[in-house]
UniProtKB/TrEMBL annotation:
Keyword Hydrolase: yes
Protein name according to UniProt: Beta-glucosidase
The organism of origin for this protein: Dictyobacter kobayashii
Listed InterPro entries: Cellulose_Degrad_GH3, Fn3-like, GH, Glyco_hydro_3_C, Glyco_hydro_3_C_sf, Glyco_hydro_3_N, Glyco_hydro_3_N_sf, Ig-like_fold
GO terms of molecular function: beta-glucosidase activity
PANTHER family, sorted: BETA-XYLOSIDASE, PERIPLASMIC BETA-GLUCOSIDASE-RELATED
GO biological process: glucan catabolic process
Top-level taxon: Bacteria
Keywords in alphabetical order: Hydrolase
UniProt lineage: Bacteria, Bacillati, Chloroflexota, Ktedonobacteria, Ktedonobacterales
Amino acid sequence: MATIPLYRDPQASIEQRVEDLLALMTLDEKLAQLGCYWSTAFVSSGTFDPEVAAEKMPHGIGQVTRIGAATGLHPQESAAFMNELQKIALERTRLGIPIIVHEEATGGFCHRDATVFPQGIGLAATWNPDLVKQVAEVIRAQMLAVGARHALAPVLDVARDPRWGRVEETYGEDPILIGAIGTAYVQGLQGQDLAHGVAATGKHFLGYAMSEGGRNWGPVQMGPRELREVYAEPFATVIRNTGIATIMNSYASVDGLPCAGSPAILTDLLRTELGFIGPVVADYASVDMLMNYHRVAATRGEAARLALLAGLDMELPAIDCYGEPLKAEVEAGRLSQEVVNTAVRRVLQLKFQLGLFEHPYVDTSSASAVFQTPDQRSLARQVVAQSTILLTNDGVLPLSPTIKRVAVIGPGADDERLLQGDYHYPSHLEIIYAAPQNTEATGLTVPQAGGDYAPGPYFTPHVTPLAGLRAALGQDVELHYARGCDILGDDSSGFAQAVEAASAADVAVVVVAGRSGLLRPVTSGEANDATNLALTGVQPELINALAASGTPLIVVVLSGRIHTLASVADKANALLQLFPAGEEGGNGLADVLLGKVNPSGRLPVSMPRSVGQIPTHVGHRAGGDRAMFFNDYIDSPTTPLFAFGHGLSYTTFAYSDLSIEAKDITEPIKIAFKVRNTGEVIGDEIVQLYGRDQVASVARPDNLLLGFARITLAPGQTRSLAFTIHPSRLAFYNPQMHFVTEPGAFTFRIGASSTDIRLTETVTLNGPIIEYRQRDIVDTTVTID
């Protein structure tokens, strides 16, 4: 009777199984585990060809890139394709090591028929980690159903430059908010046990969003203190709170060090300082970029060696450098096989954690059952409503039940494509179906899938603002629609019809918009950066023309871009921000406009008055809020138009009874207070806690978000809240780059936004200087009675 290898024994420890399997592997088999193939590379003449697959991966393969985000397959078909690929790896290779399929998932699973939730920035605008966790649980269920076990999300970049096209994928500008939303997302995606979950990926490590000129891939220039305290902190939070499975490198260089090839970033900072232990996966083609973009390597072999030595374990989306070029480096003695072994251990560890050796296949017959369910669409609608931010309101909202005539106007009013972000399905797949020459357009080689695998476009049923309002208003309200203009171009021929519709209405809902995507023409998205943050095309002129009609205007900005809206705000009776909202966008928006849902979205970013202010954000260090000598620019205040955390409600809230219990700097600080709904309707308040270290050994932020809480209050209801701040939450890197909390005076501020502060108190905390590790920060907690 044949002896079962130890690595196939589910009763053995993962460590034992990894070492047993590693000892059996040849160099070719090891290198295969560090590589990847596009799923569509196995499709020949529009059909799956098992012989092609067997030929391409004779030694197995680490990952397969994107079945859902590269094809038009329905879930049941996608699951069958995954099973077929898995069967090749299991039955036609010597060791039978299963594959991992990875996918995109920033605003929902990027797969045909999957629920299209709001884009990442929209999730952050809810300031509701519990709701984001529910979103991620849906993504997990849908990915598990088709056998995709690795999601390239969440985006944990700190986005403080709205010129950068990928701001829409992020959770905003503040590391504490990003860390809280990111933690919830990863917990929902990975679940209690990776054997029943999906591996999350924190990206992009590190500093990616603060590039020169706001340009994608641009160099990043910042010091080690800012890099750690701000840009590494969301990653540190998610690592310590969730044990996130994988991390992805940034494309950029930081102070001249390309992240994909930097041991200082991927090993010393990520692993030694922050405690990450899983695999680091390459952002697409970033190993090759060490040679052809950053120019720190002369050959692909040298690029592979630099990346592997830095701590980058897996090359995605295809093998450029980690195949024969890397093998030549090992065989020539320029790279120790022990370095290869370290990376392979991490990959195998993840595959065992995912339970793939025991359960490599999925049930194709039930795959579609967890796609487009009523509960999922209801959740998507709820998220849209909670992400909708009411920026201004003179009382026109909520819409009066006595209104009889409504005009719905604008290029975003009835275009389902504009509800999508750049990583939504199918907008993301335009790099394939809309660009046969995708290599020229994006620099990314995506093997084309034809036949039944061709990617569409295929939309789930998307509810536009026009459709949502039409359904919500019913037949008793007369509704007229006029597009007015496009999002781009100078054609104003539709103005007259739009003005006519507005003039005949009691109120006009004007949905101006952007178009997110990768392939131009778009206004936002990856590699689509901007120098002008105004609304595009003739949309500002459309608003001016409509304002002249005298009809009250409700302006909805449906865009992934953070725009400069000063002139729009002046013309609007109410102004709302709706980030790319997904399939239930129109229904969720209508719920807010009609008052079915009281708006509670809050800005996860600061909205500048003009592009010349950039960067403007809540976390500026001491002195960063003014311009000497006169405190402002010659042509503008230094303050943002709308501050971080801003968002209005249909009710009002009063804060009272502040008390602070604090012994010294060695003990947690308890901050208690009360919030009362002083209005006439039920509503959610986002209570925000900020702090300031009054005197420190380095310049500290003037306004540091320390915690937040969402509370629901009925009219007249009062609730008591208590934040508990651990001293480590006040720590920073001192002049010697030790991570310390210093004694002294601290001001704590509580309010409805970073500038709408209701309660303030300064306390002096005595005691010694305490040194911590950033990886051991204790998050602020809150109790609500």
